[in-house]
Amino acid sequence: NDIRGCSRGSLIVLEGLDRSGKTSQCGNLLAYLQGKGFSVEAWQFPDRSTSVGKMISAYLANESQLDDRTIHLLFSANRWEKRALMENKLKSGTTLIVDRYSYSGVAFSAAKGLNIEWCKAPEVGLIAPDVVVYLDVPPEKAAERGGYGLEKYEQLDFQGKVAEHYHNLLDSSWEIVDGSQSIESVERQLKDLAMHSILTCQRGKPLTNLWS
Ligand code: NYM
């Protein structure tokens, strides 16, 4: 089979509350894996560069108002518009480190009171991550970290609800990392998890789709 010639990359997703440290850790992990000579890219959702992404960005900045279901579907569409590229990259051997994915989509919308199954439905058929790392930081602690900005959702009570919904989504593909530890310690655990996932994919682990 063609796996020998070109082993696939791994889809590594980082999830967590706002100010959980995901974004800096994604950057560190990217630099580490590049240094090791892997083909790797860092992605993030929402991808604000597309036209759908610009609508999302305006909503988050409170520059536009959208019904809860409408914005939910836009976040999902923003992942769908990247699905083909994602599959190509992974199949051609590039590992993707992704800052937020479908779990953010479900956790944030469910925290507004939308039905969880309804929230999951548009995500079905997107590529399933090989590993989801949840950076676990208590909402109170996240809020202390330099405070929240002015974007929608950046309030303590709302983040508490998001945390509850994240915990409902946990399954066997998740790795929970205590985000209250030192940056170095979190970094070390992420490197180990990423290396393990990359090796498993190189050995021929098949790509699958959500929601599995
Ligand atoms: N967010 C992100 C959602 O509500 N649904 C989604 O599907 C995604 C990907 O957007 N507060 C929320 C979580 C964040 C906000 O993300 C912007 P970031 O990582 O701050 O750019």
Automatic annotation (TrEMBL):
The question of whether GTP-binding is a record keyword is answered with no
Give the range the annotation lists for the signal sequence. none
Superkingdom to which the source organism belongs: Eukaryota
Give the enzyme's EC designation: 2.7.4.9
Write down the top EC class of this protein: transferase
Q: What is this protein called?
A: Thymidylate kinase
Q: Hey, which family's this protein in?
A: Belongs to the thymidylate kinase family.
| Gene Ontology molecular function terms on file | ATP binding; dTMP kinase activity; nucleoside diphosphate kinase activity
Annotated metabolic or biological route of this protein = Pyrimidine metabolism; dTTP biosynthesis
